[in-house]
Amino acid sequence: MSNLQKIKQRFIQGLGNWQWRRKHAANEREANKKEAWWNEKFGSDATKIFNLGRKIKLKLYADSVLCRVIDTKPFELTELRFIEAYLSRGDIFIDVGANIGLFTLLAAEIVKGAGQVHCFEPSSRTFSRLTENISRNGFNNVHTNQCALSNEAGELQLYVSTDGHDAWNSLAGQLAGNEGRTEVVSVTTIDAYCQRRKLTPTIMKIDVEGWEKNVILGGREVFGPTNAPDLLVEFTEANCIAAGTSGKDLFNTIAQQGYSLFHLGEDFKLSTATADDDFGYKNLLATKDLRRVQQKLADSNLVPGTR
């Protein structure tokens, strides 16, 4: 290598290092600004708009721990990227435990056209925030349901946090925070809902703070067939125990419907999950057709090496 080539190489390396440091410093300044806003506003009635990408705007609330985490931390990025890569126009996405709409909004943008999103959020205040976020983005393909899913229809008491822990509202009782109240909510089953709507879902996200097993038990007709929807299910051991079950029990309940379960890794690499895994906190993919999932991911330009 000539001296001129060495000088050029050092220059390029130095430029790359400078650009990296500049980007890192800018990201750090932005993170510090966000933290300062939340430190000042947290617990108040202030709001701010979060850019979810794809021109989607998510309104965040300063009285919510979840909203703070969404804005300041990498929150469920693997799961969000998976949904973004998996979904395509015309799919039917069901969001069980939608909260203010993080997954609902992303799905609605991707499947628009012939596609549909059906979301469930039983808490009256959170449901109001969910519908506002849907309206803010002008989506007309989202069907909202202010009710919970369980193993049978009726009414149940939902514990609702009043000190910012709205992400832990649960039919299992108080899971987080120190202050809250109960709210009587309507409950149906996914079997009844899909039969009434004549739906064949493509994929469901189920995140209901320990009540996931009851959602599965209420869907024997939906989850039983070989063409059953794929599932993205949250497993949190402490929440399952509060609901009178366990992560292992939830795993086996899903597996008994004929599903295989997988961990989501980087670049959407899937590794087999077992009933003996640690279920402290994780989201697992359940599918009856791994090839279909892999093909849907391969068809996406978001997966490295597929284009």
Biggest β-sheet, characterized?
Answer: 8 strands, mixed
CATH class: Alpha Beta
| Architecture per CATH nomenclature, i.e. the level-2 architecture | 3-Layer(aba) Sandwich
Any idea what the radius of gyration is?
21 Å
Tell me what portion of residues adopts beta-strand conformation: 15-25%
Describe the model.
The chain is an alpha/beta fold and 307 residues long. It has one domain (74-298): Rossmann fold (3-Layer(aba) Sandwich). 40% of the residues lie in helices and 23% in strands. It has helices at 3-41, 65-72, 77-86, 102-111, 124-136, 190-197, 212-217, 220-223, 237-242, 247-255, 290-298, and strands at 47-53, 56-61, 92-96, 116-120, 142-145, 148-149, 154-161, 180-188, 203-206, 230-235, 260-264, 270-272, 282-287. It has an 8-stranded mixed sheet with strand order 5-4-3-9-10-13-11-12, sandwiched between helices. Strand 1 (47-53) and strand 2 (56-61) form a beta hairpin. The two termini are 35 Å apart. The mean pLDDT is 92.
Indicate the topology:
Blueprint: H1 3-41, E1 47-53, E2 56-61, H2 65-72, H3 77-86, E3 92-96, H4 102-111, E4 116-120, H5 124-136, E5 142-145, E6 148-149, E7 154-161, E8 180-188, H6 190-197, E9 203-206, H7 212-217, H8 220-223, E10 230-235, H9 237-242, H10 247-255, E11 260-264, E12 270-272, E13 282-287, H11 290-298
Parallel strand pairs: 3-4, 3-9, 4-5, 6-8, 9-10
Antiparallel strand pairs: 1-2, 7-8, 10-13, 11-12, 11-13
